[in-house]
């Protein structure tokens, strides 16, 4: 029988302490629903004794219809000057009415002496009495042993006594916290093994990532016998972050054979990861293991050829198990397998013996030598293939454009205006538009000229715009690469342009973006 490992998520509390992250009450409620859908066992909602926002969250969270998870309130042991029943912090924890309460207490003698200013014996009483009091009001009480590994290295006997005090108070689990994130895996493993011999209560692990080993430390503790793992989605957290549950959960399930989430729940992992990034207004890091866009992306032609025969040649698990998918990138490293795979993905018929295949590969390598990059501009690559195969058609012809940037007085923002003339069939359209910058003005003018002929372009918006100087040695005469991300509410696509002139490079990317949209819509109509 597989050993069950409890997944304790602290994204809403520890994760919200990450630099640049702030969750509203509504954000926290939405994330709670998503984490419950994922199937985690515990969701730490916040610290009701620290701020009104968390008090409001717990009031509203009681009304959620959660299927899998139990919400936990977080706080500290009672203050030395109060009895447990009179302590404001413990009162707030009880008032939250959560089925689970987690409290942290000092286990490092340095903190006991200098932060609390009390004796070691008094601290042991605080721990035991706080747990004992809270056990009267919650189904489960967990004790987070703050700075445990630093405390153990300073005075192992005292650090363990703190755990025993929580155990004597009735704690349902003692969680070993590497609060500073400075303990390496070998040392942590030796300490965890000693703790498991010394305490009877279930043991958990709470690791921070300051030494880049939070995931490794968490997995090592589980292999030794820890039954609960605390962490956050995407590793969000203070300083360098917490242990990343999006890496820990699949490792537990597929590498260690532990029971944590079901097969169906595992398939929701990438969705949960992206959801938290979106709610936190963070760009989802593409190189995240398991759930990132690049986690199962293949660029080298030999790699692509191999994974097409057997994905296990270059993939440690199947991406579908965690809700991800295999991707093939196109670049100057690409071989026949890459291009053929991209053609299939785009619905383009291209065979291994087609003469156009060699032309596409040569054109790709030539363009990348000039500075083009198609890894983030797959729509431009699809257009490149269609042009080589005679499947592309011209929707409009540029007669000319002019962009003016005018600054009328100091202290005011410049004004950008674009004038454009295009030919569509036998019609010539001449329009002008303003924008927040020269590229935005050009984009607006082009759409204004084309929308009367292609009204579906009203759905398209420019989502992201990036410029990179390709050769600093040439100074202001250097080539620039412009990457544009566009979307129409149903899908997103990337296009690229390269030139010594940033407006010309932007124009190339904008034209590809519009061509891609019109080609796709035309193909959809033909299929219908």
Radius of gyration over all CA atoms, rounded: 29 Å
Assign the structural class, choosing from mainly alpha, mainly beta, alpha/beta, alpha+beta, or little secondary structure: alpha/beta
**Which percent range fits the helix content?**
40-55%
Query: What would CATH call the class of the domain at 6-261?
Result: Alpha Beta
Report strand order across the widest sheet.
1-2-3-4-5-6-7-8
Query: What's the overall average pLDDT, rounded?
Result: 90
Which stretches of 5+ consecutive residues score pLDDT under 50?
Answer: none
Largest sheet: 8 strands, parallel, barrel
Please report the number of helical segments. 18
CATH superfamily of the domain at 6-261: Aldolase class I
CATH T-level topology of the domain at 6-261: TIM Barrel
Could you give the count of β-strands?
A: 16
Supply the CATH architecture of the domain at 6-261.
Alpha-Beta Barrel
Question: What is the rounded distance between the termini?
Answer: 51 Å
Measured by DSSP, the beta-strand proportion falls in: 15-25%
**What is the general shape?**
elongated
Structural description of this entry:
- The longest helix is centred in the C-terminal third of the chain and has 26 residues, at 502-527.
- The chain is 40% helix and 20% strand.
- The chain contains 18 helices and 16 strands.
- It is elongated, with a radius of gyration of 29 Å.
- The protein starts with 5 loop residues before the first strand and ends with a helix.
- Helix 6 crosses helix 7 and helix 8 (185-198) runs parallel beside helix 9.
- With 528 residues, it is an alpha/beta fold.
- Among the domains are: 6-261, Alpha-Beta Barrel (TIM Barrel), CATH 3.20.20; 396-453, 2-Layer Sandwich (Double Stranded RNA Binding Domain), CATH 3.30.160.
- The strands form 4 sheets. It has an 8-stranded parallel barrel with strand order 1-2-3-4-5-6-7-8, surrounded by 10 helices. Strands 11-12-13 form a 3-stranded antiparallel β-sheet, with helices on one face.
- It has helices at residues 25-38, 52-61, 88-95, 109-116, 120-134, 148-154, 156-169, 185-198, 214-224, 245-255, 263-266, 269-279, 301-309, 336-345, 355-370, 378-388, 438-450, 502-527, and strands at residues 6-9, 42-46, 70-76, 100-106, 140-146, 173-178, 203-207, 228-231, 297-298, 327-328, 397-406, 415-424, 427-435, 461-469, 480-487, 492-499.
């Amino acid at each position: 029988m597989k050993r069950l490992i409890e997944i304790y998520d602290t994204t809403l509390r520890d994760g919200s302490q990450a630099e640049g992250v702030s969750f509203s009450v509504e954000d926290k409620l939405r994330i709670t629903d998503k984490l419950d859908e994922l199937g985690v066992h515990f969701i730490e909602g916040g610290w009701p004794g620290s701020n009104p926002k968390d008090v409001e969250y717990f009031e509203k969270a009681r009304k959620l219809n959660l299927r899998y998870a139990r919400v936990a309130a977080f706080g500290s042991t009672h203050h030395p000057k109060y009895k447990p029943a009179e302590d404001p912090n413990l009162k707030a924890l009880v008032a939250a009415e959560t089925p689970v309460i987690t409290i942290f207490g000092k286990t490092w003698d340095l903190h006991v002496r200098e932060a609390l200013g009390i004796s070691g014996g008094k601290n042991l009483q605080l721990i035991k009495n706080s747990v004992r009091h809270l056990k009267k009001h919650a189904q489960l009480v967990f004790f987070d042993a703050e700075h445990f590994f630093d405390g153990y290295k300073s005075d192992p006997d005292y650090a363990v006594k703190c755990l025993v005090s929580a155990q004597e108070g009735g704690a349902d689990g003692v969680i070993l916290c590497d609060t500073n994130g400075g303990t390496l895996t070998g040392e942590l493993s030796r300490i965890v093994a000693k703790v498991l011999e010394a305490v009877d209560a279930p043991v958990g692990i709470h690791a921070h990532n300051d030494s880049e080993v939070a995931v490794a430390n968490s997995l090592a503790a589980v292999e030794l016998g820890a039954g609960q793992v605390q962490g956050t989605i995407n590793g969000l957290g203070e300083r360098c972050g917490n242990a990343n549950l999006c890496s820990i959960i699949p490792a537990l399930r597929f590498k260690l054979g532990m029971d944590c989430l079901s097969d169906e729940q595992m398939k929701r992992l990438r969705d949960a990861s992206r959801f938290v990034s979106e709610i936190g207004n963070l760009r989802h890091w593409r190189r995240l293991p398991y759930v990132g866009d690049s986690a199962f992306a293949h660029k080298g032609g030999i790699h692509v050829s191999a994974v097409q025969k057997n994905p296990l040649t270059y993939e440690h698990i199947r991406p579908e198990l965690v809700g991800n998918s295999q991707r093939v990138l196109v670049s100057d490293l690409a071989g026949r397998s890459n291009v053929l795979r991209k053609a299939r993905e785009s619905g383009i018929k291209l065979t291994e013996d087609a003469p156009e295949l060699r032309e596409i590969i040569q054109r790709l390598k030539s363009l990348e030598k000039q500075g083009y990059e198609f890894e983030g501009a797959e729509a431009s690559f699809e257009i490149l293939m269609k042009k080589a195969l005679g499947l592309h058609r011209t929707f409009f012809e540029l007669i000319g454009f002019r962009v003016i940037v005018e600054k009328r007085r100091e202290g005011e923002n410049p004004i950008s205006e674009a004038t454009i003339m295009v030919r569509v069939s036998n019609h010539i359209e001449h329009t002008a538009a303003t924008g927040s910058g020269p590229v935005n003005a050009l984009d607006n003018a082009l759409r204004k000229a084309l929308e009367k002929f292609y009204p579906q372009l009203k759905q398209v918006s420019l989502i992201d715009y990036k410029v990179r100087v390709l050769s600093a040695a040439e100074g202001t005469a250097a080539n620039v690469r412009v990457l544009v991300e566009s979307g129409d509410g149903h899908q997103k696509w990337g296009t690229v342009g390269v030139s010594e002139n940033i407006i010309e490079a932007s124009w190339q990317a904008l034209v590809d973006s519009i061509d891609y949209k019109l080609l796709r819509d035309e193909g959809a109509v033909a299929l219908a």
